[in-house]
Amino acid sequence: MPYRAPVSDYEFLLRHVVGFDQVAATDRFSEASADMVSAILTEAGKMSEEVMAPLQRDGDLHPAWLENGVLRTSPGYSAGWKAIAEGGWIGMSGNPEYGGMGLPMTLATSVNEMMAAACLSLQLAPLMSQGQIEALDHHASDELKDLYLPKLISGEWAGTMNLTEPQAGSDVGALSSKAEANGDGTYAVTGQKIFISWGDNDFTENVCHLVLARLPDGVPGTKGISLFLVPKRLPDENGNAGVANSLKVVSLEHKMGLHGSPTCVMQYDGATGWLVGKEHGGMAAMFTMMNNARLGVGGQGVGQAEGAYQQALSYALERKQGNTPGGTIIDHADVRRMLTTMKADLFAARAIMLACAVAIDMQTATNDADWAARAALLTPIAKAFGTDVGIAVAETGVQVHGGMGFIEETGAAQFSRDVRVTAIYEGTNGIQAMDLVARKMMDGGDAALRLLDEIEGDAERARASNPAMAEAVWQATESLRESTEWMLAQGDMNDRFAGAVPYLRAFARVLGAHFHLAAAQSDKGGARERLARFYITRMLPEHASLLAQAQCGAEGLFALSADDLAA
Amino acid sequence: MPYRAPVSDYEFLLRHVVGFDQVAATDRFSEASADMVSAILTEAGKMSEEVMAPLQRDGDLHPAWLENGVLRTSPGYSAGWKAIAEGGWIGMSGNPEYGGMGLPMTLATSVNEMMAAACLSLQLAPLMSQGQIEALDHHASDELKDLYLPKLISGEWAGTMNLTEPQAGSDVGALSSKAEANGDGTYAVTGQKIFISWGDNDFTENVCHLVLARLPDGVPGTKGISLFLVPKRLPDENGNAGVANSLKVVSLEHKMGLHGSPTCVMQYDGATGWLVGKEHGGMAAMFTMMNNARLGVGGQGVGQAEGAYQQALSYALERKQGNTPGGTIIDHADVRRMLTTMKADLFAARAIMLACAVAIDMQTATNDADWAARAALLTPIAKAFGTDVGIAVAETGVQVHGGMGFIEETGAAQFSRDVRVTAIYEGTNGIQAMDLVARKMMDGGDAALRLLDEIEGDAERARASNPAMAEAVWQATESLRESTEWMLAQGDMNDRFAGAVPYLRAFARVLGAHFHLAAAQSDKGGARERLARFYITRMLPEHASLLAQAQCGAEGLFALSADDLAA
Question: Is the domain defined by B430-562 classed in CATH 1.20.120?
Fold first, then answer.
């Protein structure tokens, strides 16, 4: 079943649900008219359908491999990358000074989601470049920007992120990679990095690594870390890729999925690098890149959910079973339940993702601190819920296929294997939840409570036309408010962390209901109103048990010792 | 991390939670003393640890394959099968007249669970034989029993189940395989069957297929289906495997997991078979086999949950990350939450599985209709919840491993890929749920409501020592009773089916709480009481949102048409 880009869904969401009109009304993004949005989405959708979707299974069957130390990519991926680059999709939201389109993140996020739906393992390559482009644009010197940004934006060169080290894992501050000044303005970077997505390829002239390392006078922990740009090939006097740098791909991981994306162990042996941002200021620069990437990974989850949903729906519409006259398995109540649940969750996750992107655009356009706080608040929710939905929808997609779901040829299993990593990389979903209840509540809960006020206000206004749904959304929001206040009252962070994951999920459930209600208001008597009713009646109630768990605190959790768990 | 058989967990559950003393008190199973139970579990555990666990990864890396039409199994599987056979584990609950041990199903289920934890793909082979042994014992002629049962029980020969056909899927009644009398008491069986687990092997002299097919005068649907025993090699005059029958393995499936288990497309071309049971009475015989297999598949889920839990726990206990002095990631609240959730769910699923087995044993020993109804009621719950827990625990196990979870070498991903099929085969979990709310409530809900009475009675008795937990269990049971009565009141089966899956899950949540409370009562101040409190406080509340969904009916579900879903 070929992938169909859900262009009209984006258009509906932008217009009626996530308030994109505010973005288009700013000077910064005044070009983003409805016609332009439609043209961009249609064009990117076409490329995703025609160029990328056919590569999805090839990448799974023919993973990237190392041939005498040279990385070879899956068949067709080189042409796929070129199509993405030539469409301008890598530099969509990039700075026009360097060849970018300067479009809103909301549009870039939509396009990224379509590419991720069509071929996740290839889409990860431009996503990594986009993060690097944004980090350099915000933190690099003009010299570095002039040299690197045009080539990254055009796709002549590609970018990667190098954070993880074997002993450090999620504790980035424990890294041991080192950098020393060479005396000529460059640095010698030495160390080993693991889990480097697209650490190399055979279709760009150069691969540019952003590497976290510690200078000799760097203090232990995150405050002693600096960020370096370390290219595979050193630029020559004309700024072209020249001689090889002292770095290499040591090996590739053998993964559960995402086979088309090479996951590299990278070795740096005194490789020449350039400082990005200030000495010991690497984490700030890295966070720019990570926040971008976190929303992007949330979008990967949403995209995979769309792909898996389309495939399962297509199967259910076509699969005749036994003697049911004329019917297919979509007429079974439980198959219908699965598909409708998938669609309702997909809508919720996509709306949250786009609302986060809108907040980022408003922050960019207005420099307003409230929008910045809104973007920061929604990022971990968009990442964790988007990927959780991706995994759940892909899983359910397998189930809709019955026995055929377990057979690789159908492709249903591949969605499930590929999307699984999205809940792990760019900060596990547990880390996203901890970020939500700790760092994102350092404002005393202002950003969260302000959002809940808005949701309740919208629910109040919806009472006239949709009283039952409005009341359910209002009540659930009140419960979330109480839970938020409980979180804020906990001085011991472990009491928050013990319930962070269910709290985040409940927050997403309420946000999803809010956006479904908005959709219902704009589609009276239509399918979107019926889908909203399904979600609010059947799926929103989950928030109550999640919030019960969120407020249990750490005591009962740690009452079971490690010995108890092992007994 | 090597697998350790949880022998003491079984002993605790049998003694304090699921009432195995009733089984041991019957004449039929009077040999099952505590010492004997302990000896059996210890011996089977040792075999699982030492022989089977080392094969788990080999089977994944080196799947069974067809070599010029001859099926070759994964390295070591032949020796593994012999160890299982020689231990007597295939015929544990088999009729002693034919060489079986005649032990309670409760013990066989425990042993099967250990074998499934250690190496799921190999364990599936004896599980298939066990189903065939039981079906033949109940339905075959004495001649067939005398010839086949000793060899199946000893493991000289193996057995399979042949239900599924490409066009029929879950609708068994739509099958098109045919059988015609040969005039000599045998039948010629012709047709194609798919998804035949262990349809062949290279370590038994013969493979015996139970095949569903329709006689010329068989009416359409399930009432016209007969069951035939069709061996790969026809028995010679001495009852040994003789000349080849007219059947073959056409191809093997390429699956997401369970690579060590060959999943065959089987072709029968006028193959010689013998009728099992009455003409057109095939479904009754098949149900004997399927009910056995459904509990067994539930046990596969529980076993895989145990294996995945042990591996994740071991990783969390050993994995140091960054600068945490002395600590490992098990000290993180969210890692602790994941592991404790896994353990609590595993306990619940295992208790439900064993309670179902106890009911089967009591039915066997007493012929009491109430026990038969209890076994019938619990079977779909044990199957669906056991496998759902297997999948969820394996998934969470991947997450506990962080980035390493996505790397195949750790084995965490294999649990997740292997166990996935258990929610699909032997009747999808959706079909189990439909069975629960339809067929298993044809008694007007007597069996279900009687069980709820017992749970409430136990909760009442627990109030004195555990008032808060007892109240929570009592209240949840009341909610489940209301929901059960709602189900019973629905005349249109689609209204039941629309909420069948959440209803089954809520039922399992309540049963799990009931068994956790029993464990708490027997372990005052101990780790099992703390685990019960965790489950009842944090996980039981889920029943409320599940029951809300269970009682929504079909109207809102079918309000979204197939066109709406595709829009």
Answer: yes
